[in-house]
Peroxidase 1 (Zizania palustris), 356 residues
Amino acid sequence: MASSSRLAGLVTLAVVVAVACTLPAASRAQLQVGFYNTSCPNAETLVRQAVASAFATNPGIAAGLIRLHFHDCFVNGCDASVLLFSPNGTAERDSPPNFPSLRGFEVIDAAKAAIERNCSRTVSCADILAFAARDSVNLTGNVLYQVPAGRRDGNVSNFSDAFTLPGPNLTAVELVGNFSLKNMTAEEMVVLSGSHTIGRSHCASFLFKNRERLANGTISPAYQALLAALCPPTSGQLTLVTTAIDVSTPTVLDNNYYKLLQLNLGLHFSDDQLIRDATLLPFVNAFAANETLWKERFVAAMIKMGNIEVLTGNRGEIRLNCSAVNPRSSSTSSSSSDGLIETIFPVADGEIVSTS
Ligand code: HEM
Ligand SMILES: *[C@@H]1O[C@H](CO)[C@@H](O)[C@H](O)[C@H]1NC(C)=O
Ligand SMILES: *[C@@H]1O[C@H](CO)[C@@H](O)[C@H](O)[C@H]1NC(C)=O
Ligand SMILES: *[C@@H]1O[C@H](CO)[C@@H](O)[C@H](O)[C@H]1NC(C)=O
Ligand SMILES: *[C@@H]1O[C@H](CO)[C@@H](O)[C@H](O)[C@H]1NC(C)=O
Ligand SMILES: *[C@@H]1O[C@H](CO)[C@@H](O)[C@H](O)[C@H]1NC(C)=O
Ligand SMILES: *[C@@H]1O[C@H](CO)[C@@H](O)[C@H](O)[C@H]1NC(C)=O
Ligand SMILES: *[C@@H]1O[C@H](CO)[C@@H](O)[C@H](O)[C@H]1NC(C)=O
Ligand SMILES: *[C@@H]1O[C@H](CO)[C@@H](O)[C@H](O)[C@H]1NC(C)=O
Ligand SMILES: *[C@@H]1O[C@H](CO)[C@@H](O)[C@H](O)[C@H]1NC(C)=O
Ligand SMILES: *[C@@H]1O[C@H](CO)[C@@H](O)[C@H](O)[C@H]1NC(C)=O
Ligand SMILES: *[C@@H]1O[C@H](CO)[C@@H](O)[C@H](O)[C@H]1NC(C)=O
Ligand SMILES: *[C@@H]1O[C@H](CO)[C@@H](O)[C@H](O)[C@H]1NC(C)=O
């Protein structure tokens, strides 16, 4: 039978645990510019070097890296879940919205390898994704912004969760609704769609809807004919053929995307929807008329997107390999106090010890 003093001790311990548990919650989602100033001062430089080196061989990689950050943030938050590899093909990255179109994984791996050599177990893969997207914007758009950091990496990556990503067949109302689920406004949705001023798309993402748009008069007939000629006629052969999303300046982050929409030269049905909706059209017109305005809003929206459902403090972990959850033994996720409490106070997994 427990003595009353032991019981009192347990109560005190429980209070301490409860207080400790509220601390990370209070500082939750507080990302900071220069998060690695002292712990890994070269982190951002090393990412920039990896991105610049990949970009020198393949400028398209910049678009891939921006999209990788978006697809990470919209599924399970910006926690690098999109990078996790699954031996049985059941991770986010294996899902049709991501596979085979998502690219840039090897650039993140190269940046991570360089960083691990310089300061190990310090910089999260989720932050590397955010830095790499920023560097890609710099390289293609002549814009520089600072990225608040301090994200930590998650350990869940689920094939079916990727179906919640907005797809190219969505209507304006659905696009706005899907962004609002992430607390992003209609304007921010239009602003970030401007990313489609760079990069490529696979035939399967636009070919069939564009046939319908032709009948509707919502696509330039010459553009539709060009795309139909480019893409193989049968769906089975569509897998690998791609085209630039912005036919005018496919490697420059400019406002031409919006100008093309005005000319019925939007590639995806979802792109075209931005000019068919009375609330969205004024944003398109404003960004087409003023590139400075768009870039200003774009940077702000990228930073906001980078804050979606982030893990901070002692939640999540700093992955050692961006493609894999840390092995239990080398996990950096459990603090020493968790271990202490488990020793003093054995509990079933997920009862008292779980702080996340
Ligand atoms: C508004 C909803 C959005 C839809 C429906 C959408 C849809 C698509 C589709 C279908 C592709 C082509 C994929 C392929 O077949 O290869 C694509 C590419 C791309 N998307 Fe989006 N997207 C959206 C928003 C965004 C956002 C918010 C960003 C970034 C912040 C973004 C960045 C990109 C980039 C950079 C590419 C080119 C990727 C590459 O070249 O590898 N998109 N998007
Ligand atoms: C890191 O250094 C930069 C430049 O000196 C400064 O702006 C930033 O606030 C610092 N961040 C932190 C978290 O120390
Ligand atoms: C696939 O592999 C993961 C580990 O990566 C495992 O957790 C999951 O149960 C496996 N799923 C199937 C359907 O085999
Ligand atoms: C990290 O890189 C910087 C700059 O290249 C160098 O000065 C520093 O010594 C490196 N630190 C480690 C631990 O490798
Ligand atoms: C891109 O980043 C580099 C390094 O931070 C910086 O010197 C350069 O000014 C940036 N480019 C632009 C256009 O801001
Ligand atoms: C993935 O998510 C779906 C839908 O939320 C769920 O039914 C399924 O059990 C999840 N799979 C895994 C392996 O967690
Ligand atoms: C999000 O898009 C899906 C289609 O992928 C649609 O069914 C759903 O209604 C949208 N959600 C909202 C809240 O608009
Ligand atoms: C959106 O905001 C609400 C209210 O602040 C919050 O409960 C929810 O978690 C947020 N969702 C995302 C995806 O950030
Ligand atoms: C979009 O709709 C077309 C039919 O117009 C269909 O063939 C295609 O598979 C759909 N794409 C997606 C990603 O749902
Ligand atoms: C065609 O127009 C109708 C009516 O405006 C609209 O509901 C439909 O979404 C359009 N389809 C395409 C593919 O543009
Ligand atoms: C374009 O937008 C910028 C940034 O908001 C603003 O300062 C400038 O006055 C605008 N230019 C015009 C011609 O409206
Ligand atoms: C995933 O993270 C949670 C919370 O951080 C932890 O309890 C769980 O053990 C982790 N799972 C794996 C497989 O690492
Ligand atoms: C990282 O993990 C992936 C997936 O398990 C594995 O294929 C790869 O070899 C690992 N990379 C390193 C450098 O260990």
